[in-house]
Design a protein that fits this description.
heterodimer; A: alpha/beta; Rossmann fold; 2 domains; six-stranded mixed sheet; 10 helices; 31% strand; globular; B: alpha/beta; seven-stranded mixed sheet; 9 helices; 7 strands
Chain lengths: 370, 246
């Protein structure tokens, strides 16, 4: 398992340079809006990306989950920090893990080319190019990116030349077992929440036990065949009533989504963006200990971004700091902060233990989110 | 906006300094403080004042010798690093100790900053984001140039105030007269000073004789005392740029 010990991010999105070390099993990523929390989670995903555009597209699409029509090229170019020299664009992410170094580097140049030339370069199929060729459809000029993706996974280095234009939007790649999993803040609004749960009786029982803490009437979760032969995800109540997920609130869906991803993330890394979204704060203290115990059992390293001070306090309770004198702290709290000074780094990080935050918050207003 | 932290020994120190700052330097009492610091036991006393958007948090640490305990319990070292605190003033009684001895005791409790006696010190420290910031410190030992404690400062201040001079001299003589036989304990300077201040305030405000020290001090116009203004000179710089010797 690639347990991340430290990371360095250079010129990626809004981050000029950021280095953080001493991660733990549970890492809370906190900070003001636009301080780089989601960018940080994306950087971790790119460390495990294959050297192909489809991997990058997968990461970009997570940010545009609710707005999938976004042009890939525009989103791609925005991955580079725009403060740098625009002639030569590059960003680099490097991490140390217990199994060796990981690196993702993307560099290249953007230029303007004629629309006709772009169609020669374009990844579009011949059929898709045709509308562009009809009168008035071929754009006069198009932006083109020519560059290289370099990845290093432990000792294996891969390098791939890439060339594509702003006309291109579809890239296919190989889907393989992922070493990093991501839960976007609104991911639970999609369905397919049971995939990894129902196939494993142990996981299923655990999921039902947890759900029953929120709704005692829940007896089972399963796929039900609809009249049109399709399957839908449903909850069976104690009375035998079949309730499609659509009738349940966000809380139940969010819990199932987290559990489903957790099971899938066995022996890997799970990134959870805005863990509080969709969950009422009264459930934090019930859900979080289960999530952390499960992460421990399944050997999952967690990176959790949150805005919620209630969520932070509930997560810190898991540390049991009043009664524990252990030397290592399972929780680290990483606060990202924008700074204005011209020190070569526009975003800085504070990485402190959960115990440090817990004890300070008891005696003064220690603001972890800033 | 500046946040200034002042640590003093007891409730009386907080009340005198708080009233002095309101009476002489136009600071206003505030209900809450930006640090979110509150008393952890009945011996501590915390007040907040504000002026021109700056805030001053005045903490009575619970009495003589409780400074280290207060710093540890309130995690003052973490607070200084994590919060946006411009300065720390420590006000402590001299009693029988030398400047060096008092300074050593205070500095033993402080981690990334230190204090100097009778002058502002600029401490350049790194916060936990690795960013450099400045915290100005000042150690005020009272009385500055003689043995004793806050009561000595109050007595000297009362001698300066024309309306109070005669009464304080009378009370001093009265306390002296008791030292020989009736109350031998008064031969100890600190106890004699406490008795002098207590007696003075009781006689000065007989109606409030059983009330708190805070009521007594609010009936005195401290702005007329040149000696108190001299002792409390560092407070002039609260909420202002601190004078640092090059």
């Amino acid at each position: 398992m690639a347990f991340i010990k430290s990371i360095e991010i250079n010129q990626f999105r809004g981050i000029q340079r950021l280095a953080i070390s001493d991660f733990s099993n549970i890492n809370l990523i906190v900070g003001d809006n636009n301080s780089g929390k989601t960018t940080f989670l994306e950087a971790i995903q790119l460390l495990f990306a294959k050297s192909q555009l489809s991997s990058i597209k997968n990461v970009i699409n997570q940010r545009t989950l609710l707005n999938p029509g976004n042009n890939f090229y525009t989103s791609f170019i925005k991955m580079f920090n725009m403060e740098q020299d625009k002639e030569n664009l590059e960003f680099d992410i490097y991490a140390n893990t217990y199994t060796g170094p990981l690196e993702f580097e993307l560099r290249g140049q953007e230029k303007i080319i004629a629309g006709e030339d772009a169609l020669q370069v374009s990844k579009k199929s011949v059929r898709n190019r045709t509308p562009y060729r009809t009168a008035g459809f071929t754009p006069e000029t198009v932006r083109e990116f020519v560059g290289t993706i370099i990845t290093q996974n432990e000792k294996k280095t891969m390098e791939k030349e890439i060339r594509f234009t702003s006309l291109d939007n579809v890239f296919s790649g190989v889907v393989s077992k992922k070493e990093v999993h991501y839960i976007p803040s609104f991911g639970h609004l999609r369905y397919d929440l049971l995939q990894n749960i129902v196939e494993n009786q142990e996981y299923k029982k655990l999921a039902i036990d947890i759900l029953r803490q929120f709704d005692e009437s829940i007896k089972d979760i399963c796929y039900i065949k609809a009249d049109d032969e399709s399957y839908f995800e449903a909850i069976i109540t104690e009375r035998g009533v079949v309730m499609p997920f659509s009738v349940y609130g966000d809380g139940i869906k969010k819990i199932l989504y987290i559990l489903n991803k957790m099971f899938d993330a066995t022996d890997s890394i799970l990134l959870i963006d805005e863990i509080e979204t969709g969950l009422h704060k009264k459930y934090y203290e019930t859900l979080f200990p289960v999530v952390f115990a499960l992460a421990n059992k399944l050997n999952v390293q967690l990176f959790i971004a949150t805005h919620s001070i209630e969520a932070i306090d509930a997560i810190l309770k898991y540390g049991n700091y009043e009664n524990s004198n252990r030397n290592t702290d399972p929780i680290k709290v990483i606060t990202l902060k924008k700074v204005n000074e011209n020190t070569g780094s526009n975003i800085v990080a504070r990485n402190v233990t959960g115990k440090y935050v817990y004890e300070n918050r008891k005696v003064f207003e220690f603001e972890v989110r800033l | 906006m500046m946040t200034e932290l002042v640590l003093v020994e007891g409730v009386s120190d907080v009340q005198l300094i708080s009233y002095y700052l309101q009476n002489v330097h136009d600071w206003k009492h505030e209900r809450n403080n930006v640090l979110g610091i509150t008393e952890l036991d009945e011996h501590e006393h915390i007040e907040s004042l504000s002026k021109n958007g700056n805030q001053l948090i005045l903490c009575g640490v619970g009495g003589n010798g409780k400074f280290a305990h207060f710093v540890e319990q309130h995690r003052v070292n973490d607070m200084l690093i994590e919060k946006d605190i411009s300065s720390l003033i420590v006000v402590t009684d001299r009693d029988e100790a030398s400047d060096a001895n008092v300074r050593r005791v205070i500095n033993n409790s402080l981690e990334k900053i230190s204090v100097e006696v009778g002058r502002w010190k600029n401490n350049e420290v790194e916060d936990s984001f690795g960013q450099v910031k400045n915290i100005y410190t000042y150690l005020l030992i009272i009385p500055p140039n003689e043995r004793g404690a806050l009561e000595r400062v109050i007595i000297d201040a009362l001698k300066d105030i024309p309306e109070e001079t005669e009464l304080i001299q009378e009370v001093i003589q009265f306390i002296d007269s008791l030292k020989g036989g009736l109350v031998p304990d008064l031969n100890q300077v600190n106890k004699a000073n406490k008795a002098t201040v207590g007696t003075f305030f009781s006689v000065r405000n007989p109606k409030n004789a059983m009330r708190s020290f805070g009521i007594f001090i609010s009936n005195i116009d401290w702005s007329k005392s040149a000696s108190l203004q001299q002792v409390f000179l560092p407070f002039t710089y609260l909420g202002e740029v601190k004078p640092i010797e090059k």
